[in-house]
Each structure stands twice: as structure tokens, then as C-alpha cells.
């Protein structure tokens, strides 16, 4: 799954942010200029340009030097982190934007369509970036491209840099009293039933100026974009530690899956569903998913060998239709098919062995949310507690 975030209208000026960070750190134009290898007039111009683009005063100029204002103190840590992620003072904002667009689109033609830039200018910017870094970043494969190992590392660093700058801009806007920003959520299947929709409804009412973008997918599809900075947080069943390198997990509530089947299914009248359920086909998600492992664990706890699953499927919509077409069974959270259960189209039974899975929020290790993002996560906790209760 490819996640495409809107590319900024203008590429970030990396030198401007470097000038800001150095001036906050040193409190002196002379020392800051020396630290970023700029002349004092160039550094002053960079700060002035950044102030104009943000619409705020970043420094109070006085005989004692440059005193950082609140917006500068909000933005400086984000700028420092972004510069560290970029990893080289030779990278320009134009090169960063071009390379990220090509990496995300998988081709120069796709990147040109996404950004409105010509393929020739994208080729030139990426080639200049490769020369500046002294690394081959892209291998061509016909009309598509393949990132080299160095290219993949740079793409991740650049994505994280852009995430920091977006967060910094949102924090400055909030300081100005403008509710703004964007929260990008990766939603695994269970979170889409009630937890995330209810959270979005409440959050949108309280924060009308903050956009929320939801990208649906499996853990495997969303973990990469989360690590790359393309999404801010991921919601769903938590994974074992081996699967979440570089990520942080927070448990929010426990889900209790049930046996789900069509209304009128023969299993509903069986005195011993645990033994009888082996006589029917099962529709279960792939082996790499927690739900599949819980299902297999339930079977083995009962002393049964998990039957062969002919149809593996993680889509609730598709599984619902498969259930309605015959006597198949599945293991699902009742909340994922609450409408069908209430309408009497589907039915459920408790699992013969209690099955519980932990649902929560996954973010990047060391992630520093903006105030709006932190409030969104807090609301996720509140709604999750209500669901569990």
C-alpha cells in the first residue's frame, strides 16, 4: 500500500531552519553564523525570511543579543530534529522534496503528477542530491525506480524531517491562536468499527481547524509509513516486541472476539459447539496476524488441531459476505459486525476458550506529538475505556 501525503506547495528552506536552530542555541548572530557556515547578513536574511513565512517574530533583537521568542522556542527543537534527520548540510529543500516525491510515487512520472513539477526538473534535483551526498540513491527499472539501501535510509530520514517541520509549523499556528494542523492515522481493521470513528467525531467537534486523514491497512502495510513519518500513529491489535522495532506501543483496551456465523447456522443449536465447529469451513486472516494466532491457540487449548483454512481473508466486509453465503465460521470482535448482529443477519457465540487481544496505539519510538496530536491520543484512551467497559 502506498500512502501519499500532500506535498508542500514550496519546499522547506533547510538553511533557514538551520539558522533558526543555531541562533536559539547560541543566542548570538556571530556564533550562529559561524556554526552554520553563513555570513551574518545571510543568517539575518534567513531568519527574516522564516519570520515572514510564518508570520511571527522569532527573536527580540537587543544589545544583549538575540532573545528567542516563544514561537522560536517551539520551532527550534523541531528544526534541530529535522536537520539531524536530513543528515547533511548539502541537502536543499528542493532536492528533499523532489526525492521524497519520487520515492513515494515509485516513478518520475508519478512524482511529476503528484507535485506538478516536470520530470526533467525532478531528474535534475535527484541527480544533484546524489552528487551532493556522494551516494547512488535510485536504480532505474524501466519506467519505475527502485531505491538503493542508501536511498531507502535517506527517504526515511527526509520523511521524518518533514514530519518534524509539519509539527513545528502546527505548534506555531496553535500559539497564534489558529487551530490548524493535520493528524494522519493508520487504521487496522478493528479500530474502524467504533473506536476510531467515535474518537474522530468528538475530536472534530472540539478542534474544527485540525484535519484528520485516515489510511486503512494491515500492520504490515502501515508500519513502514509510520516509521517513515508519513503517518503519525497506528491503531489496532498490538504486536509482539519482535515485530515493532523502532516503534512504541500503548495498550488501550482489551477486545474479546466471538464466533460469528450467519443467522440460523446449525452450530447455534449444537449442545457442544467446541467439537461441532470443526465440521465447518473457517474464514480467518493470515498467519502473520494476532487474530489467527489467537484462533490457533484456542483450538490447541481445546486439544484440537487447527483445521486447514482454505480461504484466508482479513477484510471484514468480504468475510461478512462469505458468512452469509453458507455455513462458514469466523472469529471476530462483535463490534466489527454490530450492525449485522443487531439486524439479525449474523449471529455470534462466545468462544469455547476465552480469547482476548490487546488493542492500542502504536507510534514511533521517541515521537513528540503536538498538542493537538496529544489531545487526539488522550481521546482515544477515553473512548477505548468506554468500549471496554
Largest sheet: 5 strands, mixed
Number of domain modules: 3
Euclidean distance between termini CA atoms: 34 Å
CATH class membership of the largest domain: Mainly Alpha
Question: Proportion of β residues?
Answer: 15-25%
**H/E order of the elements?**
HHHEEHHHHEEHEHEHEEEHEHEHEHEEH
What does this molecule look like?
It is a single chain. This protein has 3 domains: 14-153, Winged helix-like DNA-binding domain superfamily/Winged helix DNA-binding domain (Arc Repressor Mutant, subunit A, Orthogonal Bundle), CATH 1.10.10.10; 180-254 and 359-388, Periplasmic binding protein-like II (D-Maltodextrin-Binding Protein, domain 2, 3-Layer(aba) Sandwich); 257-355, D-Maltodextrin-Binding Protein, domain 2, CATH 3.40.190.10. The chain contains 15 helices and 14 strands. Helix 1 packs across helix 2 and helix 5 (93-105) packs across helix 8 (149-175). The radius of gyration is 26 Å and the shape is elongated. The mean pLDDT is 91. The strands form 5 sheets. The chain has a 5-stranded mixed beta sheet, with helices on both faces. It is α/β, with parallel strands linked by helices and 389 residues long. Helix content is 48%, strand content 17%.
Descriptive tags:
3 domains, D-Maltodextrin-Binding Protein, domain 2, 389 residues, 3-stranded antiparallel beta sheet, 15 helices, alpha/beta, 48% helix, 5-stranded mixed beta sheet, 14 strands, single chain, Arc Repressor Mutant, subunit A
